[in-house]
Design a protein that fits this description.
Layout lengths: L1 H26 L6 H33 L18
Helix pairs in contact: 1-2
Length: about 80
């Protein structure tokens, strides 16, 4: 879950950085090509972290399900053979 939230935070910070880069570009404070590199790099980094968080949650749920544990516990069972 951590990388999922970190990815969301990264995307939000990338949007903020994109606005800042566009303002600097409009004011003429940037080098040619810098604005597009910063915007793309920030957004792609946040998107990768977000997707990694989704995949991590999915793989974690697969791992828990693969343990083949019962959903509930039974205190006693009558007339059932032992499961091996």
């Amino acid at each position: 879950m951590g990388s999922l939230y970190l990815g969301m935070l990264g995307i939000l910070l990338a949007m903020e950085e994109s606005v800042r880069a566009l303002i600097n570009y409009a004011l003429g404070y940037t080098i040619s090509g810098w604005t597009s590199l910063i915007i793309l790099n920030s957004l792609i980094g946040g998107a990768i972290l977000f997707c990694l968080g989704i995949m991590g949650d999915y793989i974690g749920k697969i791992y828990v399900a693969s343990k083949d544990r019962p959903i509930y516990l039974v205190a006693k069972s009558y007339h059932f053979p032992q499961r091996r």
